[in-house]
Amino acid sequence: MGRSLMARRIKREFPGVTAYFDRHQKRRYRFRQKGFSTEIHGEYGSDEFRRNYERAIRGYRSQEIGAAATKRGTINALVVSYYKSPEFVSLSDSTKATYRREIERLRDEHGHRLVEQMKRAHVVKLLEPLVDRPSARNNRLRMLRMLLNHAVEIGWRADNPTAAIKKMRTGSQGFHTWTDDELSAFFAHHEIGSTAHTAVTLMLYTACSRVDAVRLGWQNVSGSRLQYRRQKTERFSEVVVDIPVHPDLQRVLDALPKSQMTFLETSGGRSRSANGLGNAMRKWCNAAKLPDCTSHGLRKACATRLAEAGASEREIMAWTGHTSPQMVQIYAGKARRGLMADQGFAKLRQNEIGSNVDEPKEDGSTK
Question: Domain containing 219 — which CATH number?
Fold first, then answer.
């Protein structure tokens, strides 16, 4: 059955449900209605699928009614309360969507359970299915910890049973940081003037994330500077990213018409969505034979370049818009290992031979 025909059938038989393929190319189904979203498990059209669809409808309606229609003390009620908390409300829309995906999975399976009865053993059991996927396990643990912290705050529990449970080591360095060779390969495949070239140059020299990249336009440029407020923090933050426009970025922007509302608009002249940019980036990188490269890797590449140039943590934070030095310390620490190794080696050789071996300075030159 063709995708368009399947989509029409789903829309007719199960309003609110859409089909999609996961990373294993397995067809899955999701119910969405006015901000409410949940997975529909089971083979399409089966009794299990229909039961889960009815459950999704009830979940949506119960959310519309509010916490009063949810049994007090259950995980279901805790989730409703958390969604109204200042902690959740203050998050960006993209972060809310990320949190909701994991929270709704927990809610679907365990929403009827009582919060006060949850023990450490129950938390461990919830994490067991993900033991072979450390990142997914850690993410679930983080969501449980936040929910149960909220339970403590509103007086539903005296303690948090996740407190003594540690995260698993993932062995991952997170998103891959683009190398100079990978950037050269990308630009060789996607020439200046293409949206692909513009997108990568924009994110490389601004360290902006996808949600910000799709909003940037000439309205953000003043003279030789680019200014914007990060969408992730803009609701409750006065931090504005205010950076000089790099000459390489200026050359790319100069090729764009001033009539464009945003630098990365679609061929139809419409603003591009963050998800749309993510999908396009995947296609562009695959076309350039760069399967490990992502848009977030460009943000890391920019921060790493600044660190390698000797920029301080605060200077990097001013560029990336970070409000905490934690992530910046990771970039800076990795970037400076090579420099520190060279400095250490120079000292070792100077001690061994007693000669006046020049020690590399922060800018890479010698005395």
Answer: 1.10.443.10
Alpha carbons within 13 angstroms on the beta-carbon side of residue 145 total 13
Residue 329 within a domain: no
Q: How many structural domains are present in the chain?
A: 4
Nearest CA to 184 among 248, 120, 137? 248
**Residue 98 has which token pair?**
């990320």
Query: What's the pLDDT tens digit per position in 157-198?
Result: 999 999 989 988 776 567 788 999 999 999 999 999 999 999
Place of tokens 């933050």: 237
Alpha carbons 319 and 218: distance in angstroms, whole number: 19
Distance between CA 296 and CA 223 in Å, rounded? Answer: 27
Residues 196 and 269 in one domain: yes
Q: pTM surpassing 0.90?
A: no
81-87: long-range contacts (C-beta < 8 A, 24 or more apart)?
81/150, 81/154, 82/146, 82/147, 82/150, 85/150, 85/153, 87/146, 87/150
pLDDT, mean of residues 65-88 = 80
Domain enclosing residue 291, as ranges? 180-323
